């Protein structure tokens, strides 16, 4: 909102402000539970949100590190919003959006913890999220097989993927929601997920993230402008909101295949390496063993504490890398030098490592890890040979209990996973993204109530030729933990407390003949000497000043072509430089002036490009070098003539003419009422008709919902289409798309089924109108598209046609969430389609 005054807020928003003020005055305590926000960061974040809302800022974000308690903060906002809305005529619901199904379940459990009045729990508990008593709950989940949206709960939790699929707003109607919370809010910087921000334009919107800047071109602040509260990671550590940290390095004797790196960089056109490429480069047993041997046999060089027995996470390059690391841990334990450690693990009934990644739902591990309250192994478990099957949720639980020491994952645990007992985080590959590194190493920084002296040790690997590989491309230099933690105070090393109590002393490993093929570096001066930030910054231009745009951004906003727009930017820069040189200014000063006022270098991934200032862009527009071939986006609910055609039928050209006619009529009426020309035009644009210009360059118009209603009532637009399809009902064309076959045949079969059901109901004694209503309610519904007759069929009716063989499933089902085809892998990671298909096979 542009006005900075509480008077600009809606009545519901004003009640929300009052409720937040009352919440703060009563000690930031939740109703109906023993929980309250913690003094310090959590108080400050809520107060920052309240200040922003009082000033009319309805859209914004929190920049808060992982582990500080962001869930509690947004839970407190949701509770107070629900209190403000409850029982009111303007009551709206709350939508919470998270990245994945695991986080959906975690968020549901958080509601049960902080707000039991809307998410009451059953006595029994299980791992699938159903411990909540859904029959009495005002909370709902929408993903996979759990579909609570149609029950209209006061709070609905869903995933970004589910939200993206709802293009027609049938599941998530923007009119229903007054508050939308985006957890792991950097997800909205992606193009498809970011569309949600426009969808919920009229709701309060809050993103919560530890990494608001995904890249130079993708920032949460570009979607939700105001940062309500920011807490830098280093400050969170220094003020004690997170545990102490002390990064170390493992310097391997492995030489990375430089030729392969060069090949990948060329294939990626100098962009960062993909996860698949990183896995291919760094999943090498000799290199993996440096980490395995460090954990099994080494001591912290400063504290003298054994790494073995500490709990932690290892992030791999990919699925195969994770599985190979688990396998190689067990292979190492089979060696004579680790025989005592192998027996110690057996005596303690502890597993060394398990994988949780995008390609697994569990793992075969040593039997008997899960026990009842008396320590007895659980009966009726799935067994094979000397192993027992554990689900992913069971693996997480066992890790939290200290019965699985290490969890090895690809990127699945990068978001939304925190175990307070973890104090080692190892990254096995060179990460090239600050966001990726921050998300991963942050998993280990949460405070541990059982260990007030907890110190987390993030570990990076440095190979023999790491610097040599990237020296000519400093913008691709790896990001290490020391860079992310720059500014944090490193706690003096001490012997750390093992939060998992063992019955037997941890044995030493015998020295190996080839011992010493890696070096553990803990000296903080040396560790920080490997920080590549300054080298990377020297190779990459600083972020664009506010309002400056790259050629691609101009294309997206105004149309045209990237190449042409960039050429025009470069030409303007040269012209301005020549003009300044002609005045006698020296070249260095003239170059600085051009960069300050008009055109600036934009080096991205090693490629040279340019940015232009708002003043420079205006010059190009006035000179006709950049033409406005696109209008600003339509307001929510406003429609163009072509959109009306799609929704109601008729002719797009006729609808355009009707919209223009309505605008002229409204303008004349306002002028006749004494309003001046400019003010009248603004009023028309605000309430009825707004200018638009499609890519073709031809004038077009958007009409407001109120204006459209006037045209319908005046019969200038006739509703030639049926009402929207019920949830799950399908047209013939939709069946063809889902199952194959001919849409014409499907339409005929649907009509025939409707006639058959109608005849059966009439034969059973129903009159004509009752039989027709029954058919429309249960089996077949009339539809129309562009004035042509069509039909929709219910899920039950479709099943009838499938069982009688009239509709055959000749196409594969939709891919499961997260599963990918070769073409999708190519689009996301690069490479060739043929290679990806071959690898999948």
Explain what the structure shows.
It is a single chain. The protein is α/β, with parallel strands linked by helices and about 850 residues long. Helix content is about 40%, strand content about 15%. The strands form 6 sheets. The chain has an 8-stranded mixed β-sheet. α15 links the parallel β17 and β18 (about 455-460).
Keywords:
about 850 residues; 8-stranded mixed beta sheet; about 15% strand; globular
Topology readout:
Elements: H1 11-25, H2 41-54, E1 59-63, H3 70-85, E2 93-98, H4 101-114, E3 139-143, E4 146-147, E5 155-159, H5 160-165, E6 177-183, H6 191-199, E7 204-209, H7 220-223, E8 226-230, H8 233-238, E9 244-245, E10 248-252, H9 258-267, H10 275-282, H11 285-297, E11 312-315, H12 319-333, H13 339-348, E12 351-355, E13 362-365, E14 383-384, E15 387-391, H14 392-400, E16 404-409, E17 424-427, H15 434-441, E18 455-462, H16 466-470, H17 481-484, E19 518-521, H18 524-529, H19 533-539, E20 549-550, H20 551-558, H21 562-582, H22 587-597, E21 599-604, E22 607-612, H23 614-622, E23 639-640, H24 641-648, H25 652-672, H26 677-687, E24 689-692, E25 700-703, H27 705-713, E26 730-731, H28 732-739, H29 743-763, H30 768-778, E27 780-785, E28 788-793, H31 795-803, H32 822-829, H33 833-840
Parallel strand pairs: 1-7, 1-8, 2-5, 2-6, 3-5, 6-7, 9-18, 10-18, 11-16, 11-17, 12-16, 17-18
Antiparallel strand pairs: 3-4, 10-19, 13-15, 14-15, 20-22, 21-22, 23-25, 24-25, 26-28, 27-28
